[in-house]
Specification:
By secondary structure, the protein is an alpha/beta fold. The chain is built from 13 helices and 9 strands. The structure holds 5'-deoxyadenosine (5AD) and FE2/S2 (inorganic) cluster.
Length: 344
């Protein structure tokens, strides 16, 4: 497929939009080969802890947006979060991902206290945070408290498209700044976007790829948009699975060393969506470690999978799925091969 690392816009647009099965197959295979060159057949497991579904934001696509009064809200206590980590550690996880809405109750001080407690009990585990847009000072404090990684999807690198998905108070420029700041502080940083959000064009997706090339993040989360009840986008169609897979593959080709999760959203749209993502260049999965009684409440979109399973069942299920496609589940820290700006 030639040297796509230096591909021009037209060539990338053709690959984003191609409907030709042979071209698509070739693209996915190239992406898979690149992944194997750097990471082999290893698939890194991360334990996901969704610790609050309160959110002050009002993104038009998201089921836990502030204006959604129809959902029950929850917050895990520090002890509950630590218990999730303990369960995770006993299952073999070496990475914890703490994800939540932008919940002011979890002030910087409270987050740091939780991070320090986890760091104290699990000195060698990687701690990943995913709590949205914060100030540089807050990010620095999280880092000092012992967090190593931060996930903040940019959602869309096209200004007009970003504005069509978010209230005016949210600015693409600020999100970009946050990502550059995180990277500079020394976090292994994850960006990412949804595929098939309302008003998205192929040019928007091209902008996402160009932005990723510029940022050069350690991780990139890519999943299809799935409508969520009681949101402004509730009646728009879901993203397309094949287009999502092509975007995973193109991201792998342009950012050969990035870590790419096979996302839950892809698994929700297609029974074998996550496994297919692995064949398109993804190399990370994130089984859920949240307590079972709150799983369904972290409802970013409708029909989310894995809401009824205990952590151990999820891990077993995911390991089988990974193995059945010829990959090797790996319970390791799984650091990105993209160098950090500061050694952590
Ligand atoms: N469909 C798919 N993904 C969604 N996210 C939020 N809402 C939806 C939705 N309706 C994604 C966003 C966010 C991540 C945590 O979940 O990209 O960054
Ligand atoms: Fe959770 Fe399959 S991965 S039940």
């Amino acid at each position: 497929m030639g040297d796509l690392q230096n591909a021009g816009d037209d060539e990338l647009l053709d690959l984003i939009t191609t409907e030709d099965p042979r071209t698509m197959e070739r693209l996915l295979l190239d992406a898979r080969n690149i992944t194997e060159k750097h990471y082999g057949k290893d698939v890194y497991f991360r334990g996901l802890i969704e610790f609050t579904n309160y959110c002050k934001n009002d993104c038009f696509y998201c089921g836990i947006r502030n204006a959604n009064r129809k959902i029950e809200r929850y917050r895990l206590t520090k002890e509950q979060i630590l218990d999730c980590c303990r369960t995770g550690a006993s299952l073999g996880f070496k990475t914890f991902v703490l994800q939540g809405g932008e919940d002011p109750w979890f002030s910087c001080g409270r987050v740091c206290e939780i991070v320090r407690a986890i760091r104290n009990e699990f000195p060698d585990h990687a701690i990943t945070l995913s709590l949205g847009e914060k100030t540089r000072e807050e990010y620095e404090q999280y880092y000092s408290a012992g967090a190593n990684r931060y996930l903040l999807r940019h959602e869309s690198a096209d200004c007009a498209h970003y504005a069509a998905m978010h209230p005016a108070a949210m600015r693409l420029e600020n999100r970009r700044e946050c990502l550059y700041t995180l990277r500079k502080i020394g976090f292994q940083t994850g960006a990412g976007f949804m595929v098939g959000t309302p008003f998205q064009t192929a040019e928007c997706l091209l902008a996402d790829l160009r932005f990723l090339q510029e940022l050069d993040p350690h991780m990139v989360g890519i999943g299809p948009f799935i409508p969520s009840a009681n949101t402004p986008f509730a009646h728009y169609p879901s993203g397309n699975v094949n287009l999502t897979l092509r975007m995973v593959a193109l991201t792998r080709i342009l950012l050969p060393r990035a870590l790419l999760p096979a996302t839950t959203a892809l698994g929700t749209l297609a029974g074998d969506g996550r496994e297919r993502a692995l064949t398109a260049g993804a190399n990370v999965v994130m089984p859920n470690l949240s307590p079972r009684d709150v799983r369904a409440l972290y409802s970013l979109y409708d029909n989310k999978i894995c809401t009824g399973d205990e952590a151990a069942e999820c891990v077993r299920c995911m390991s089988l799925r990974v193995r059945s496609f010829g990959f090797t589940p790996r319970m390791v820290r799984g650091d990105s091969l993209v160098p950090a700006d500061r050694q952590s």
